[in-house]
Every structure is written in structure tokens, then in C-alpha cells.
Amino acid sequence: MPDYQAPLRDLRFVMDEMLDYPAHYARLPGGEEATPDVVAAILEEGARFAREVLLPLNQSGDQEGCLLEGGEVKAPKGFKEAYQQYVEGGWPSLAAEPAHGGQGLPHSLAMVLSEMICATNLAWGMYPGLSHGAADALRHHGTEEQQATYLTKLVEGVWTGTMCLTEPHCGTDLGLIKTRAVPTADGAYEITGTKIFISAGEHDLAENIVHLVLAKLPDAPEGSKGISLFVVPKFMPDAGGNPGERNGVACGSLEHKMGIHGNATCVMNFDAARGFLVGPPNKGLACMFTMMNAARLGVGIQGLGLTEASFQNALAYARDRLQMRALSGPQAPEKPADPIIVHPDVRRMLLTQKAFAEGGRMLVLYTAQMLDVVEHGQDSAERERAETLLSLLTPIVKAFLTEVGFEATNEGVQVFGGHGFIQEWGMEQLVRDSRITRLYEGTTGIQALDLLGRKVLMSQGESLKVFTKEIHKFCKGEEGNADMAEFVAPLAKLNAEWGELTMGIGMKAMKDREEVGAASVDYLMYSGYVTLAYLFARAAKQAQQAMAGGSDEAAFYQAKVKTARFYFQRLLPRTRAHAQCIQAGAEPLMALSAEEFGLGFEI
Amino acid sequence: MPDYQAPLRDLRFVMDEMLDYPAHYARLPGGEEATPDVVAAILEEGARFAREVLLPLNQSGDQEGCLLEGGEVKAPKGFKEAYQQYVEGGWPSLAAEPAHGGQGLPHSLAMVLSEMICATNLAWGMYPGLSHGAADALRHHGTEEQQATYLTKLVEGVWTGTMCLTEPHCGTDLGLIKTRAVPTADGAYEITGTKIFISAGEHDLAENIVHLVLAKLPDAPEGSKGISLFVVPKFMPDAGGNPGERNGVACGSLEHKMGIHGNATCVMNFDAARGFLVGPPNKGLACMFTMMNAARLGVGIQGLGLTEASFQNALAYARDRLQMRALSGPQAPEKPADPIIVHPDVRRMLLTQKAFAEGGRMLVLYTAQMLDVVEHGQDSAERERAETLLSLLTPIVKAFLTEVGFEATNEGVQVFGGHGFIQEWGMEQLVRDSRITRLYEGTTGIQALDLLGRKVLMSQGESLKVFTKEIHKFCKGEEGNADMAEFVAPLAKLNAEWGELTMGIGMKAMKDREEVGAASVDYLMYSGYVTLAYLFARAAKQAQQAMAGGSDEAAFYQAKVKTARFYFQRLLPRTRAHAQCIQAGAEPLMALSAEEFGLGFEI
């Protein structure tokens, strides 16, 4: 069975040493309670919960799946009990506002714990995972009464939440939804329609489920301007706030999926279900984006968690499995063959995983600081800057970390050879589970359009400049530092190129809007690689400083510098391909007619 | 349910127009019967069999899987009947020698049919698929008696074959095998040991199974020099050549796998099973490579077939699914949204699939001609040249087509968005099925070492030169052809760089053998991209000529040129990343100690 240890040492490096989280928390209202000791204790306890409670249920949950019987969904064995422990441990309320019963700790801390949950049991993590988005929507857009009724229960964790957006004929294009909301005499609404792909739409982990549902009011404007958001509970709360009468919403069927079998992905039928408007009428899409942005960061963290899980197990296997001799001569002559970690190509795969795990962790924690500042920052200029960076980096976190996460989990299978394809070893499950992360909460293509179109080009490149200026400043600061030249020289070059490529697309897009879509995914991947290069350069500097200061953990810092070097020499060259593809423009993509695509096989 | 139409028009283009198969077959002994009419009839009949018989069993076979009961394995419903039709149709004997009951048609023709089988039902295809390798081993190394007893049955298809190589502790490193062969008084052997991952090791499709087994004789030399090959039937043939007494070989269990659920992947226990030596004692590894090379080409074709299957279904979905408007304005204003094929990023994914399908098909058919010449060619110089090219291209066919096949099937899922993750649509099955192709018959890493180490560097680059000279000649021939400049200029440059990179690795490897392993996978991928560039350039030329000649299929040829252009502009840039990674050398991979890999999470 796969094992997992939370990467506490690496987290300490990124949080305490590189990004100075202690100072960050000290400045944050509410953060002052997140002292280094408290943080360390929380992370250790979270690590224990993930490893001892969630991990043992991961393979069994995958094999067992969920069961729909008489309208009730049973999650796999042990899921409910694990969720009870989660609630009893106070985990759901960690980063929620004290006003709603939360502990008021910084969001970044919850994100770190989320990595551990995703690494050990993604399917389980999707039950509480959706509650955050629902809670965010209610916190920002709900009435006081809605907050008192639903939000406190979500924060406490005794109820869970869902996001009901997708319908059979539309996912990305929510302007097409058909679900209707008809006002009732008492100011509520009757919601009728079918939603699909609803994660944790129905289950037996919590006593009630709070659905956040997009629907159209009568006479709503056409398209995405006519969407409203509603809260629709599974059980109507009674006078005491406890689950009362059953509402008209039910799970029609469970999807059979490639992965995350332990999570109930439901078709939800709303049949004149009683619901309540959240936020202003016809402004549901904006409210939805509140949920969506939190969810997108969350999915990026899923990519990171699965990368780390796959890496740790591939590493253990590579140290243990004996096969062939090193080309340069036996490394373990006393054994019948060398452990496969001696082979350079196995190392290439392991280092790819390791670099994406450590790079992804830096990216998440860097972005998490921005989120903390956006949520709690006192200085408005600082908050505005953080908002800009957060909004720029969110699609990168989501799409880049899930794309490379899928690659990394596949490298894990590859290290295991044929055994990687066998369920028993657990490596193929990580691939299947990670496959969804490139799709849900907006595919990679959608994230890429968000990044390039909405975030970068719509701001005339200003949002990008906020980030590239920071990188530029870092590079300038290291000029003349010979130890850093191997990182700073290529980084500075890429940073300048990033701006040039952006400008190039912007110019072309003025003539032809399709140029944006044609460049978008390559642009996103390019951006991800440069962002990680910046963070790895900072990590290398931090590690060099620690070694110069005579640390007694020289091996750890040495490994960090070597990993950064691997990243720069063996992963960063991919920017060359992406840059060329960006520059190739839209013409090679748009040239074929829809018919011409099929002429090789259609008669 | 997914659909499939054999790409007959594209096959005709590659076979008849580009590679002049009619002339190739006319020159081949035995090939003269493969007249264009006969070939067309066979391909059409094969297309029908694949679509009408195999395709409907693909999803049900995946969901049902195989069942082991009382030592007997039942394949999914319908598999046995489909196999009977296959045998009755004479398909197994198509390319076998008339001396063994075969029809003596060229091997290349069987490979084309194999693409159709893999595209429609890979799990089913693995039952007859392994017979080819077993038959090859017996044809080349078996005694006349063994050929009469076993080979004719394999050719007829009433018996199937297996390749029993892997053991729990060794796959790549067969020198470590523990299975023993003890001579008996009558000149036979008793085989004892456990083999794992045996595809079609036990099933109910055929009346007998012929296992080709690697084992060690008593006092065999250590390691890979002490391996011998044995034929071990499931049922001992009786005096009439029919299945008689049960032999001491049985399926111990079935593996639970990520994909190809319909195929029985068996643990096979040999308990003093009666077997017969094939080829000389201790020369089993060489005999095994006879099976292996055929199998490797076969796996590359699996990658191709799955690519085409995924492409066709993604294309149909992209034309049908309405979502969002084109950025440049509505393309189907009469509909509620545009079909997603209008979006450039969807086109990028479809074209990636299309280019890998068409490029892979050209590579397979180019290589297949070499195989035909090696098997049947009359001119010894021509045969030697074909042998060189075949041996150079085999690891590229195997590893490159499976790596890009996995990418292509994943693009298919991505085009479907969330629906791609749902089993019902069939797209995720193609991903799961294709995942094994990167692993079995030698992982991508092993193919890469074979290409760079054994094929290229061990011949001092001579084998590569045979191919790069051909490419050089093609480029020279197009000098001054302005219509071809967009293809020929980058191709010529890459072709020269290919040699330089090879030389660079060779020089470094003289000092440090690990440089070979460090460069190998990037070298293989680089080689694959350049090889496809050569073939796409030839395809573009062919298409341009056809249009210049006033063809009434201008749209087909136009699409071919546009696909070639997409390949050059949007896929070939990946060579830039691979070239840089090759040049980065071994140092970044070898720097970390085995301990240093784990310092982020190990305490």
C-alpha cells in the first residue's frame, strides 16, 4: 500500500525560511495567533490525520466506490467516520471567520492542510472540499439570516456544501443553463432543473447538504447576464436550525468515472425545490466566481498533493527495486542488481516529480500569502497589489499544477514499470484521480483564456507587469552574485521574453481575436515555467545563504540547490517549445474547415 | 458509444500515393498477390470486422473484465465468438508462410489491419496479438517438429501463444529469472517457476495455448547468458496433434489493472510443466528478441490505433457540442452557441491528435516496408539497408508512438471536458488502455537505451546515417522548390542537428557512460519528431503534386498540407526543448545522493 509523510521539512523551508510566514502572519489581523509553534502543531496534527485516517481509506474507497440506493448515497466504508473525526478535530472551521464560528486562522494554513488531504485521499477530500466554496459565496453574498442558518453549519462542518452549475448541455457556457427559479408568495423560489457532475451532491457524511445553485428567474435577460444564485438545502432547516422537512432536490444517478471513485458525483434533480436568492437577481455569475476562485486554487493544490504522493512512493520503489547494473559499473555489487535509482533516466523521472512538487508548493504558498492579504490585509495599496497577483496567479495555480501533476503521477507509474499499471500498487489510481483536475472548475483551456485574455490582455499587460517587476527586482538584486548566476541569467532573459511574447500576442489580437485562444495554453504553460523558475531561484538563494551561515542541515540545502539546478536545466527548456508555438500564431490552427478535419476516414 | 471508421482514404494516400506500395508489393516474392484490388478488399473487410464485431465489445469488455474460476479464465461476453469469426475469416494466417499454412501475404498488410483492431478493441486484440511473437520465435528457432506441432496451429489461430518472460522480481533485467528447466530422460524439460504479467496466459478463446517461456537450465551461466527458451503447451498435443493431457501450467491469479480489462493478464505457475527447448541452450535471450521485435512494432501500432480512435470521436464531439461563441464573432448564429470546433484551442487539441495519427501511420507504413524487405527481399544490399532502418526505427515506433498516443488519447478526453472523465463516453477508457503501451514490451526508457545505446552509438552512428542520408537526399532534391521551403528548410536543419547531437552524446559518453542514459529519452523523442517531420514533408510534397496534377480531391490534399504545416509549426518546436535537455548532460541528474531525494519529507 502506498505510504505518505507530509513534507514538513520542505514546508518549513518554504514558509519559515523563504517566504517568511512568521512575519507575514504577525502582520495579519487574526494571524497573530498563528505563531510558529501553533503552526507547527497544526501541521503535525494535520499530517497525522492525513496519514493515519485518510490514507488507509484511499485504495478501498477507490475499489468500493459509492452506492445509490433508494435515493440515498452511501460513501465507501470508513468515509463517514473519518469525516466525523475531521469535524471533531475542528478542521472545517480553521480559517473561517470567528463571527461565523470559525477559528479565524489564515487561509494559507488551510491550504497547506489541503495539500496533505489531497495527497492521501482526494475522493474523500472532495466531500468537505466543496463546502469552502459554498461558504465563501454565503459569506460574501448571503444575507445575515442565510449566514446564520447555513454558513455557521458549513463552518462547523456538520453540513456540507455543493456548487450546482453544470447542466447536461452546458458546463463552460453557463449562459445556456435551463434551470428555472420561480418566485413564491413568501419571497422564496421554486427551483426546477437538472444539474450534472455535482461533487458530493448526495452522501451520508453530514446531516444536511447546502446546494448553491445557478438558475434563471422568469424574464431574466438572455445568456450569462440572466443567471442568479440560490441556496437550496437538502433538508429545510426547522425552527431550531436543525434539518427538518425534505426539500425537492434528489440525486438521480451517480456518474461512473475514471477516478475519484470514492466521491459521489451526482446528477441532481431539482423539482420545485425551495430555494433562496443569494446576492442580487441576475448577478449570479459574479457570485459564482467567488466560489470558483477558491475552488480553482483548491484544484491546483490537488495537483500538488497528488504529485507529492506519487513522488514519495516512486522514490521508495526506486531505492528498493533491483534491476540491471549502472552503465558506469555496479553500485551495489553485493546485491544481484543495482537499485534502479542509480539509472539516470529513473532519476530524471523522480526529479521531475520532485521539482514539480517543491515548485508547486512554493507557488501555492506564495499565492496563499496574497490570498491572506486580500482577505485580511490592512494596507489598501498592499491589498490591491495582492489582489492583482492573486488574480493573475490563480489560473496558473489551477492549470499549471494540474497539468504537471498529471505528468508527475504518470512518471510515478513509469518508475514502477509494469507494476505501475497494477491497481494493488496504488500508482495508477493517482493518475486516474489526477485526470479530473485538468477538467473540473474550468479546463486548462478555460484557465488559459482567463489568464491571457481576462487577466493579462484586458489589463493591457499591467497585471503581468506587477509580477515581472518583482522578478526583475530580484534579478537586479543578484547581479554580481556569481553563485546565483546560473539561475539569475536565464531567469532575467525569460522574464524579459515573457513581456515581449505578451506584447506580440496583444498586437496580433488587435487584428484577430482568435490569436488569443491560439496562444493561450502555450502561454499559460510558459507562464507557469517562468513562475516556478523565479521561485526556484529564490529557493536556491535561500539555501545558499543557509549553507553559508553554517547550517547543520547542509544536505537538505544542497539537495534544494541541486533540485533548482535540475529544474533550470531539464524542465525550463520547455519554454523554448512554448515560445515558438505562441509565435506560430493562429493560422495553422484555423486553416482547416470543420469538414477537412475528417477527410482521412470519412467517406 | 464511440464510433470508428477505418481511415481508408488516408491509408490509400500513404500506401498507394506516398510510399508506392503497389510497386513495393509487386517486387516482393509473395507480394505479387497483394494487388491493389486485393489489398483494398482486405482492408475493407478488416475495417468491417473491426467496426462491426470488435468495437461493440470494447466498452462491455472493459466493464466486465475477465473471470478466473476453478483455474479457468472466462473472457468477457462475446470475445470468444469474435475470435471464432476472426479465425474463420482467415485473419491469423494472413501474413504467415504458406509452408506453415499461411497465406503468404506481406507482413505490412497485417500491420495495417492491426491498427484497426487496436483502434476498436485493444483488450481483445491482445489475445491473438501475442500469437505473432510466439509464431515468429518458432518459425526462426523451432525444430521442424515443433513447427509442425505448434506453429501451424498458431497460424491457423485455433491455438494462441504467449510470451512468458517477466517474474515478480524482474522484468527488464531478465538475467535475474529464477524459473528452472530440468532435463527429463526423454529429451524434454520440466519447467518450474512463476511468471507474471502474462497477457492472454489463460482464456477460453482457443482450444490450446502455446507458452514460450524463458527459464534456466541447471548449471546455466549466471545472468542473461544463461537463459534458454522453451515451448510449453497448456495441453500436450496427442498423437493426432490435438489437445490431449493437461500440462503442469496454470493461471494462479488475474491482475487488476488500470486498463485493458478485457484481456486476461495472468500470473502463471509452472509446476514441473513439460516443455521443449527452442533454439540452442543458453541462447534464449536472442530467440526472445525475435518475439520482442515483432511485439514492439505491434505495441507502437497500438499507440497509433488508440490515437486514431480518440481523434475520430473527439472530432465528432467538437462538431456537435455547442458552447460559447467564437472570440471573433458567432459562427453559427442560428444556434444557441457555436460548435466548439470553432475555438482555436479545441482545434489545437484535435490537430495534435490528427497529426500524430497521420504521422504515426506514415511511420508504421514506412517501417513496415522495411520489415517486408527484411523478410522477403531478394537483393542482399537492399535487405541489409532495410534491416538497419528497421532496427533503428523499431524503438522509435514503439516508444514515440505510445508516448504521443497517450498524449493524444488525453487530448481526446480534454476535448470532451468533464464528459471525458465519464466512462459512458468511452474516452477515458482509451487513456487507461493506452497507458500500458508505454510500459510493456520494454518501457520508453528501455526503448530509448536501445535506440541511443545499442542501435546508434554501438554502430558509431552508422545506422543513423543511413536514415539521415535519405532525409538529406530528400531535402537536396527539393532545393529551389519554393512550395516546399517551409518544410524542407527546418527539416534540413534538424537533420543536421540530429547528427551533431548524436556526436555530442557519443563524445561525452566516452568519459561517462551515464551520459547515454541521461540523454536517452529526450533523444528518442527528438528522433521521433524529426522522423515524423521527414514523413510529413514527403506527404506535403505528394499532396502538392496531386493538386498540381488537377486532382478532384483537392480538399483532401489541402487538408494534408495544412496538417503538415500544423505539425511543423506547433509540434516540431518541441525538438528545441529536447535538444537543450540532451545537451544539459548527466550532471543535473546524477548530483543527488539517494538520501538527498527524500530530505523534504523524511524525518
UniProtKB/TrEMBL annotation, chains A, B:
Keyword Flavoprotein attached? yes
Gene3D superfamilies recorded: Acyl-CoA dehydrogenase/oxidase, N-terminal domain, Butyryl-CoA Dehydrogenase, subunit A, domain 2, Butyryl-CoA Dehydrogenase, subunit A, domain 3
Q: Which residues form the Acyl-CoA oxidase/dehydrogenase middle domain?
A: 163-271
Q: In what residue span(s) does the Acyl-CoA dehydrogenase/oxidase N-terminal domain sit?
A: 46-157
**Acetyl-CoA dehydrogenase-like C-terminal domain segment(s):** 467-592
The Acyl-CoA dehydrogenase/oxidase C-terminal domain extends over 282-450
Cofactors that this protein relies on = FAD
Pfam families according to UniProt: Acyl-CoA_dh_1 (PF00441), Acyl-CoA_dh_C (PF12806), Acyl-CoA_dh_M (PF02770), Acyl-CoA_dh_N (PF02771)
Q: Which domain of life is it from?
A: Bacteria
Going by the UniProt record, its keywords in alphabetical order are:
FAD, Flavoprotein, Oxidoreductase
InterPro entries to which the protein is assigned, alphabetical: Acyl-CoA_dh-like_C_dom, Acyl-CoA_Oxase/DH_mid-dom, Acyl-CoA_Oxase/DH_mid-dom_sf, AcylCo_DH-like_C, AcylCo_DH/oxidase_C, AcylCoA_DH/ox_N, AcylCoA_DH/ox_N_sf, AcylCoA_DH/oxidase_NM_dom_sf
Family classification:
Belongs to the acyl-CoA dehydrogenase family.
UniProt-recorded name of the protein = Acyl-CoA dehydrogenase
Q: Which organism is it from?
A: Billgrantia aerodenitrificans
